[in-house]
């Protein structure tokens, strides 16, 4: 779109914020996967381990 010369300057300026949000979301997703810790030894948290009430 940028290299073709067919897009107007206004159209490109409208797309810039959405591209920025997309890049931030991608980075956030990658970082949250790598730093995820499920507890002391990877088990479910204590809140989810409680018995359900009828």
Write the layout of secondary structure elements.
Blueprint: H1 9-34, H2 46-49
Q: From N to C, what is the helix and strand string?
A: HH
Q: What average pLDDT do the residues reach?
A: 75
Radius of gyration: 22 Å
**What is the β-strand count?**
0
Beta-strand content = under 5%
Count of runs of 4 or more consecutive helical residues? 2
Q: Report how far the terminal alpha carbons are from each other.
A: 58 Å
How does the overall form come out from the CA principal axes? rod-shaped
Q: Give the % helix.
A: 55-70%
Number of domains: 1
Uncertain residue ranges: none
Biggest sheet layout:
none
Q: Which class of secondary structure composition applies to the elements?
A: mainly alpha
Task: Describe what you observe in this structure.
56% of the residues lie in helices and 0% in strands. The radius of gyration is 22 Å and the shape is rod-shaped. It starts with 8 loop residues before the first helix and ends in a 5-residue tail after the last helix. By secondary structure, it is an all-alpha fold. The relative contact order is 0.08. The chain has one domain. The protein contains two helices and no strands.
Brief summary:
This protein has 54 residues and is mainly alpha-helical.
What are its keywords?
single chain; 54 residues; mainly alpha; rod-shaped
